[in-house]
Amino acid sequence: MSAELRVTPFFGCMISMKLPQFEAAVRRTVDKLGVELVDLEGFACCPDPLYYKTRDKMTWLILAARNLCVAEDAGLDIVTCCSGCTATLSEARAMLTEDEALCAEVNGKLKAIGREFKGTIQVKHIATLIREEIGLEKVRDSVTHPLTDLKVAIHYGCHLLKPSHIMQVDDPDHPTILEELIRAVGATPLNHEEKLLCCGKACNDPDLPPKMLLEVMRSVNKLDVHCMALICPTCFDSFDFGQIKLKRMFDEEFHIPVVYYFQLLALAQGIAPAEVGLHWHKIKTDNILEVVGAENA
Amino acid sequence: MTEKGLESAEKIRKLVGGSSYSYCYQCGACVGDCPAARHSAEFSPRKIIMMTMLGLEDELLTPDSIIWDCTNCYNCYERCPQDIHPIEVIIALKNLATRRGAVPDSYQRMTKVIHEQAASTSMTPTMERRRKELDLPDLYPPPLHEIRRLLEEV
Ligand code: SF4
Ligand code: SF4
Shortest Cα distance from A199 to chain B (angstroms)? Predict the structure, then answer.
């Protein structure tokens, strides 16, 4: 298929170095949607919006602006695949375009490396790009193996949607984007009560994240679903490995496979499960493969 | 608001960038949907805003302060009827604590990794192997020289 849309992917540290199967899923699936991903040299950590930003917001902004400049110099919009990268790059872009004085200050620093933020490119999470620019019709057309019997609990997490005046993806209290994406692969999306709850990753008190996680897993467990699907590597890590920790901490057992949306899209496009690393998940994904009839090659 | 409170308000307003928390009327809308407050007996964005309004933020600027338990979910930002953006005030407080060196170790570690590697995590042999197995392109070398040069500027 000839590419109709050229963008640069920003996979971020966590996906490229800890969850490369998500990168593979995005690369393989969007190729079938007419998107050309142009890899650029020069990107660094977004930088991380949880620890690094809260430590020193100005340095965070300058380093984020540098990443935006790399894409601007190539004249390509950025697509992010991680909610954290989306938060950092979208917010930095909004701050710099809304505040001239701040932008001038940041550009004063970027001068040292011969760069300048001009505000010429957009930042979009890949899920948003699909719904808004590629269109769900094209997703449906790319599906050769609809996941007809699969029931999926969707989880939004935080930074795809909030702060909503910057992200402008959906109503942050009543989002529909993931439901729409799941329907497009032929599966049935189900909303669990805590679908908007934070995974708790950033809390410093070690007691808090497991309590949030327990709440999410209990909420998912009330539904009759085969798996949980999401679009953020931090949520993934918290929920996949997290279920094993919950067993140790609270003696409550859950076996809910967790997948990145693009891994489901890959299965629906007839891509082999191993090509998107489903066998590396801590919570086994075999039940998904049984339902959709894919061979775990 | 106390005089000390006004002083801190000004300092934090600069860090937060515009939004003023002096109009907080302690309604508690930010607490209702705060996941950290739901699970912690001590944490509350309303309490943090109040202490700051009273000029008592020094008490919050320690490595074991409740400010570090905010999980950055932005619910309070969406909920506050006064557009106080409590999370941004909390971030400003964390920035102030950092200037005093009053930061939890996890933050120090993350910063060190980002400054040394231009990434928030490190590549491992297992992940190298998985990238190969998945037929993914090699990663470009991190732009360390640019990051280092920028860090000299700030
Ligand atoms: S919601 Fe806003 S006005 Fe109400 S207590 Fe929280 S910060 Fe104050
Ligand atoms: S951002 Fe922090 S203070 Fe605000 S609702 Fe979330 S956890 Fe609570």
Answer: 8
CA pair distance B48, B137, nearest whole angstrom: 46
pTM of this prediction? 0.94
Q: What's the B27 CA to ligand 1 centre distance in angstroms? A: 5
pLDDT surpasses 70 at B15: no
What does the DSSP 8-state code read for residue A223? S
Whole-complex ipTM: 0.93
**Contact state of B39 with A62 under an 8 Å Cβ cutoff:** no
Site to probe by mutation for ligand 2, drawn from B50, B75, B93 as the one with most ligand atoms within 8 Å of Cβ, is B75
Please state, in angstroms and rounded to a whole number, the distance separating the CA atoms of residues A48 and B115. 12
- pLDDT mean by block of 10 residues, chain A; 297 residues: 84 97 98 97 95 91 98 98 95 96 97 97 96 96 96 92 87 92 97 88 89 94 96 94 90 94 98 97 95 68
Ligand 2 nearest-atom number relative to CA B75: 5
Q: Is the CB of B32 under 6 A from ligand 2?
A: no
Is residue A82 classed exposed, middle or buried when 0-12, 13-18 and 19+ CB atoms within 10 A define those classes?
Answer: buried
Cα dihedral sign, A27-A28-A30-A35: positive
**Which domains does chain B show, CATH number per domain?**
3-99 (1.10.1060.10), 105-153 (no CATH)
